[in-house]
Each structure stands twice: as structure tokens, then as C-alpha cells.
Amino acid sequence: MERELREFLHLKKPSKAAIQKALPGLQQWGPSKVTLVLRKLGTEHRGHLLLPLMDTMRQSQLELDVFHYSAAAAAAASETARWHLPLHLLGDARRQGIRPNEYTYCSTMSAPWYFVIETVRQMQDFRLTNQVSCSSAISAFGQAGEWRFAIDALGDAAEHRLGANAFSLSAAMASCDNLHQWRRALEALETLQSADLRLDTDSDDFAPCCDLAISACAKGSNWQGALEMLTKMKGCSMRTGDVTYSAAITACSNTEEWRVAMALCGELMMCHLEPGIWCTASAHACDKVGAWLQALSIFEWVSDRTEVDGALAGSVLSSLSSSKGASCALELLRCLGRQWQPAVPEVEVEAGSAGVLCHRPGIVVVNKASGESTESLLLRCSKSFGIQLRLASRLDAPTSGVLPLACGESAGKYLQAQFAGRLVRKDYICLCAGPSLGEMHSSAVISQPLLTTGQDGINSRTIVSKIGRPAKTAYVVQARYWHSAPPVEEQELILLRVRPLTGRTHQIRVHLASIGRPILGDMVYGTPAVGHACFRLFLHCAKLRLFDFTGSTFTAEAPLPA
């Protein structure tokens, strides 16, 4: 069976004769074998074989039932390029006299959100909607960033008592939270609380919804709403924890009410709450206002109870550097280096092997090629060096250049502390198009807040927004090129040396596009003409300066690719 199935899966243009040759004895197949093969088509991404196979099965007198169509619909839904297939299969089932059930419809919820809209409509027509389908649909809308559909689906579920629960509410609120639609998230919470749904809003199942509400308030700088929600949770004896308190502290630190954040932090210390991300959030609040003494107190409190992580150490380093000067921050970094270095494994690395530019104990710096993801490079180097390497920063797949890797957990924390503490200096080379930025060696700083939306690095998108996080990018004009004499402004190409002063997603690309100078080869943030002007993104990390475990600086450079 395995050999026959492998031959079948490699069919490019299946016909009835080819299917019967690859899978002999179709007439003797049982229901379980049919379901197994249909599911296999989904895992192997062979959706083009689904319809020909099912047609051949029917012609071979095989009786197909609702479970077979459920397996086929689930397999088809796994391929976004063939999003129409699940809808076709559902229609085919009805034409064969088979009525799809709630499991058939729910199995298609992983399809693109625009297909889910039609699925939900059909389920409502057949009165098949339940808690699972409600939550699945809302999650599908939320993951696609379609928060309006998610909220509408939740409202319909509440109005018609179609099985809305705390999990579907969490899905809807998460879609709003990821896109900084904090008012919508709070409205969703009020919708379900006001509906007569026998929903136990005091239960621990409801706690994640409240956490999301506080997080939404944090992104909207609504610190009063965050504290009000926290008070309600305490009054209902609802479970509160690390995520709850860190979100509340962040809400206060995003405004001028950092003293409220410190008061909440002090309260948690007095209650002997276990150290967690709420400590990092508190230290970050101190960093924003230069309260280095309070940040250091939090650092010492955590150090007395557990190991300090890189994020917390970075917030304290940043606070010290901005308030007391770089020398104080470096002194703390050296102390951390002495504390963490004994746990760093020894790795023998030859410069030049696997793209290695240079290395120090616990730190390997490599030259990433354009087109390779940071994660795949990490796996390849880990296998090559025989050790589990860790990331402290990343480069976008189309960006090439210098990338530091940490050897083990302790080295990872040490690098993370440097990046979070803004002690690392990175210089990029890029070629952009647009009006002149001045004569050679002209310099400036782009200061525009950036907001990143999306679930992951593939689907995420960054825009300039007033509600975004602060971001600064410095640049110097290295060279100017044009096609005509005298030069025409719109035709000028500008070679820049760029230094990001903060570390936001796609920061350099978005900042340059925001001033009308998109990078050549940027298909996301540039115009079509600029995007197709170069075979790759003309952005290269040329130089990196960081600190080894002794506190001494070292620099790695990667030449511009040919």
C-alpha cells in the first residue's frame, strides 16, 4: 500500500487509467482506507488529486459517505492556492445526496478567510453552527487580520445564542489586539458580558479574555481601563498572573503614569509574586523615564530570587546608559559577562567555514546570504558546529550581511541584553530611489513611530502610525547616481549608510519609503517600478559592533555582495 500510495502522490496529470494503475484494487477498498488516502493528500499538499480520485472511486462502485467528504474538505482547505476546492466538495456532497454535517464544515475552517465567510453562511442556513465552528471561524478571521468579520461573527453568535463562549471571545479579542483595535476589543468583551448566554464571567476560562482586554488597553495607552479591569478580576477572585500584571504595568508605562506602574510593581514584590515578565515590564517602564535607580532595584530583587534573563538585563542597561552614561552600563554588562560565561560551552570554529566572519567565546558571527531565512541559517549552522545556537536578533530573508549567533542559553542572554540595552551598533548599506537627499556626506535622522500588524514574520506589515512605537533611523549619503545630465530629481539613485537607533520590524525599509525614497528591490514597501529595479532587496548589513564576555568591543564586517 505504501509503495502504491507514493506512486499515486507523484501523479502530475491524473486520469482514471493512471489512478487505477497506481492504486489497483479500488473496488476492494474499505471506508477506513479511503479516509486514510484522502487525509494523506492534505498532508502531502496534493490537492489537485482530490477530485479525480473521488470521481474514480464513485465509478468503481465505492460508496462515499459524509466522513470521506469531511476528510477531503480538510485536505483541500490546507492549500490556499486551491481555496475553491472545499466549496466545490461541499456542493458535490449535496449533489450526491450527502448532507455535510458540522464536522465537514469545521474541517474547512483552515481555508482562507474569504472562504470561511461562505462556510459560516451555509452552516447558519442548515442550523449547524456550534461552539467549535463559532470559535474556528472567529480564529480564521482573526489570524487573517480581518477583525471586523471576527467581531461581526461574535456579535451574531451572541445575538442568536449560537454557542459563543470564552474561547470564541478570546479569538475575536486577539484579532483586535494584534491590530491595536483596543476599543473594539473592549466592545467585544462588553457584548458577551451583556448577552444572556449563561457565560460564567468569573471563571478562570474567562481570565484570558480579561488579560487580552488589559493588553488592548496597554496598546491604546488607556491605563485607567487596564487598572479597572485588573480590579474587577481581583474582585471576582479570578486567576491573575504574570501576563495579567505585565500588561497592566505596560499600560501605565505607555503613558505618563509610570509611578502607577512602579506602585503596582512594589505591590507585587510585597506579595512575593514569582519573578516573571512583569519584572521586565517594570524595568522597561523605568527605562522610558530614566528612572535608573528603580530599574536597578528591580534587577537586584530578581537576582536574589532567580536568574536574570536578557530582556530584563537589557532594560536596566538601557536605563543606565541613558541616565548615567555608557560607562555605568558597560560595568554592569561586564558583571553579567563574568556571571554567565562559565556556563558557555566551548566551540571550535574556523573563520570562513559556513560563512563565519569572526568568533569569540560563546559568540559566532556569520555572513547571511540574501534569500535565506534567519531561522534556516540558524539550523544549518547548529548542525555544522554540533551545538544548539540561539538568536538575539534577525535579518529579513531578502537582507544579507552580518548576523551574530549565540552558543547556548547563557550566551543568548548575554547577546539579548546587549541588543535590548541598545549597546550594539549595526551599519547597513542600501540603494534607494527618489529626490535628492543632499550632497555627499549629508546626514539626517528619520524619527517616525512604527506600528507592526500581523501574526508572524511572513504576514506582518509595518506602517507609520501615531499609535506605533518610537523608532529612529540615521543615514549618511555615500554616493549619488542619475541617468541624465543635468540630473533629474525623480531619477536619482542614492547609496546610503544607515544606522537604526531602534530595532523595529522592517524599520529601515519603512522609514525610507515613508520619506519617498524606497529601497530598490523592495516589493513590499516600494512602488512596482522600484520593486522590479533590482533582482533582490538592495539592503545589506555591512558592519556590527558588540561586546565579548570580557566587556571588550569587537567588530565584524561583511563586504557588499558582488
TrEMBL record:
It comes from the Eukaryota. It holds the Pfam family PseudoU_synth_2. The keyword Isomerase applies. Keywords: Isomerase. Residues 354-514 form the Pseudouridine synthase RsuA/RluA-like domain. The keyword Isomerase applies. InterPro entries: PPR_rpt (IPR002885), PsdUridine_synth_cat_dom_sf (IPR020103), PsdUridine_synth_RsuA/RluA (IPR006145), RluA_PseudoU_synthase (IPR050188), TPR-like_helical_dom_sf (IPR011990). GO terms for molecular function: isomerase activity. Belongs to the pseudouridine synthase RluA family. This is Ribosomal large subunit pseudouridine synthase C (23S rRNA pseudouridine(955/2504/2580) synthase) (rRNA pseudouridylate synthase C) (rRNA-uridine isomerase C). The lineage of its organism: Eukaryota, Sar, Alveolata, Dinophyceae, Suessiales.
